[in-house]
Design goal:
about 350 residues; mainly alpha
Length: about 350
């Protein structure tokens, strides 16, 4: 190839850059929206808004644009997602456990395991959407909403359409919780004078889907409820990595031979292990507040880009094909979180007081 031909040849990385740029533009447009008071009151976080914006944009763009941006979109969904989950560990420290004590930790562990179990039982044996959708809804409802769905998707090798359905499901019911929980507090606490705002905060943090939704619901109750709700929620988020490790091993054991990536190959979600190590590192307070603030802002951008890329890969036809089964499953799990979660919280508080 002559020098003239080399200069005229397209850059090999240009398709990758196009997709990254498109995902980044959507994320950059969404992040300022959470500063709007109405959006903040609704508890719609950056991740939720990014996937919604990505879905809208992706369904409006012509097919030729999708083809030209495909490599960068795939890169964002795969590599930026894993890097974002790893850096999310800088939001957590193991010292947070001490703020709500062992009762909050035990409550979170019971709620995570029981919620995922209820989701699997109701989904696989009753409502019966496809099993990957069941697992994704279970992860999002059990741990931290859209972020948990995104982190679980590569472990079970779910496609973008199923991930979008699961995200939409947990967002719908998590947003409903923002309005339901403060109303529950107003109705319940006059009848149970021994119930403190801090206790109700733990209940909120152990049962509401998204971090942003927990903040919004707790804030509407009281500052004390908000503080304990956020800490309880952070403990649930810290359980994401061990959950992914266990789920990954279980899924690989139950896969049919034809579904495996190769003979005898076990897919290990290393990013989940690194996530734990980052949280351990953060517990020692080695980084300054300035560095932590910069890392957290960067992580928010990475996860927003991954969500935007996921939305760009989603077609409304995929959501329509999923039907009402995911919504019905989400409703069943939501009822469990409210009613079963109340029972678990009261039992743990009574037994371990």
């Amino acid at each position: 190839m002559t020098l003239h031909q080399q200069l005229r040849a397209p850059l090999p990385r240009l398709p990758l850059l196009r997709g990254l740029l498109l995902s980044g533009m959507i994320a950059a447009g969404v992040i300022p929206l959470i500063q709007i008071p109405l959006v903040a009151r609704l508890g719609l976080g950056t991740l939720t808004l990014s996937i919604l914006a990505g879905i809208i944009t992706g369904n409006l763009l012509p097919a030729t644009v999708h083809v030209r941006c495909e490599q960068g979109i795939a890169f964002s969904k795969h590599y930026l997602l894993r890097l974002g989950i790893i850096l999310y560990g800088f939001n957590l420290t193991f010292q947070q456990i001490g703020h709500i004590g062992y009762r909050g930790l035990v409550t979170d562990m019971i709620m995570l395991s029981s919620t995922f179990l209820v989701t699997c039982l109701a989904g696989l044996y009753w409502i019966k959407p496809d099993k990957q959708t069941v697992w994704l809804i279970g992860a999002g409802s059990s741990i931290c909403g859209a972020a948990a769905v995104l982190a679980t998707a590569p472990v079970i090798r779910a496609d973008a359409g199923k991930v979008a359905v699961a995200v939409a499901t947990v967002v719908i019911f998590g947003t409903a919780a923002i309005f339901i929980y403060p109303l529950m507090w107003e109705v319940i606490h006059p009848w149970l004078p021994g119930l403190s705002a801090e206790q109700f905060g733990i209940y909120t943090g152990s049962t509401v889907h998204e971090v942003a939704q927990v903040v919004a619901a707790g804030h509407a109750i009281s500052p004390q409820a908000e503080d304990t709700a956020v800490i309880a929620k952070m403990l649930r988020v810290m359980m994401l990595a061990p959950f992914l490790l266990l789920l990954g091993q279980w899924v690989n054991r139950t896969r049919q031979p034809a579904e495996n990536a190769g003979p005898g190959k076990i897919t290990f979600p290393w990013f989940a292990l690194i996530f734990i190590l980052v949280a351990v590192l953060n517990s020692f307070g080695l980084l300054s507040d300035t560095w932590l603030s910069w890392i957290r802002r960067s992580d928010n951008i990475l996860l927003a880009m991954a969500m935007a890329a996921l939305g760009l890969s989603t077609r409304l036809s995929q959501l329509k094909t999923a039907g009402l089964k995911p919504l019905l499953l989400g409703a069943v799990v939501f009822l469990w979180l409210i009613i079963g979660g109340a029972g678990v919280n009261l039992l743990v508080w009574h037994v371990m007081q």
